[in-house]
Amino acid sequence: MFSVVVHTPDVVGDRMAGPGIRAWHLAAELARHFPTKLIAKREGTAPEDVTLISHGSSEARKAMQEASVLVGQPARGFRKRHPGQRIVYDLFDPTVLELRELYGLRPSARQRVHLAAEWLRLSIALMRADLLVCAAKKQREFYEQLQSSDTRWIEVPFGIDLADTRGCAKPQDNLVVWGGGVWEWLDPATAVEAIVRLNHDGLRANLLFLGRSRPNRDLIDRRRDDRFDKLLQRGEGHVSANDEWVPYRERLSWLRAGKIAIMLHRRTAEAEYSIRTRLFDAIAAGIPVIASAGGFAADLVEREGLGIVVPPGDAVAVAEAIRRLLTDDEFRSACVESLERIRPRFAWDVVTRPLVSAIKEWQT
Fold first, then answer.
1. d(CA 28, CA 37)
2. If you ran DSSP here, which 8-state letter would residue 172 be given?
3. How far is Cα 5 from Cα 185, in angstroms, rounded to an integer?
């Protein structure tokens, strides 16, 4: 029987980061058309609209062996199991570029081995895939520099669950929300500096980080926690953070408590080829965005009028962007209208159509 397996090395359940969220929704949409199973690390309650199998189980190994099509990111153990099987590599997350920023200029021996392994997995994916998936045109341009084959590409951006997009609750006064993680390639320090600057200038504003930890417990870095504690202290009482990663079903409620969603990054190669998955939460919640220039998110914010794009690392520009969105009601309302206008374009059943069509071709 024709069947599909979606695979992710990340966590799926109550609390999820971008890779887990994406794998879950890909599996849910594919399940509308084909028998589909999702292999992931389970955390808490499993989604009801997918068949979730835990990593490392005999059931997972059997599902991957029997599947007609495998869909997932390059990862350890994710490979074809027999000649007639098709494999789709999802390259929406530029992992090799993230690791370069994570490990810095002087990686340890273990970190160098990890980075080399990820480059090898990416090279194998580019060479052996039956179908390659990117999230934006610019990502494809990056990968094609490394590619020697003529494998077919499709574009599947991140998506939005329209069932989650209820009307916005009344926001708290002058609250700015940082919706995702605080990884090394991002720039939370500039957001903190901008908030402190505004309060010194007499405009009361607060910044909330939705979660300081991450849902995948295997990847928690205590050194990052120590650095983040120091960052919170620099906020002079105007910056706070939830200790735990916000549950997936609660994230939009938290966002709607704010007037602005902020996502800042440093000037890196990762920034140019990322898509910033938390942008799509802001679109779902209808919250105007402040984004650093560079990459898919900034291009979309600027082109569609979803908020304000600022130069990377410029705390003065960030402060002025926050000031405008907090004080210019007409401008903020225009941004909200634009967010609501483009929202249907990124519904999961819309963005996954190219993937569904490609797999249907194989089925027939």
1. 9
2. P
3. 31
Nearest to 258 by CA among 191, 325, 303: 325
| 8 A C-beta contact, residue 195 and residue 207 | yes
What single letter denotes the amino acid at residue 273? Y
240 DSSP 8-state letter: E
- pLDDT tens by residue, the chain, 364 residues: 999 999 999 999 999 999 999 999 999 999 999 999 999 999 888 788 899 999 889 999 999 999 999 999 999 889 999 999 999 999 999 999 999 998 988 899 999 999 999 999 999 999 999 999 999 999 999 999 998 778 999 999 999 998 876 544 556 679 999 998 888 899 999 999 999 999 999 999 999 998 776 666 555 454 456 678 888 888 889 999 988 888 888 899 999 999 999 999 999 999 999 999 999 999 999 999 999 999 999 999 999 999 999 999 999 999 999 999 999 999 999 999 999 999 999 999 999 999 999 999 999 8
| DSSP label at residue 132 | E
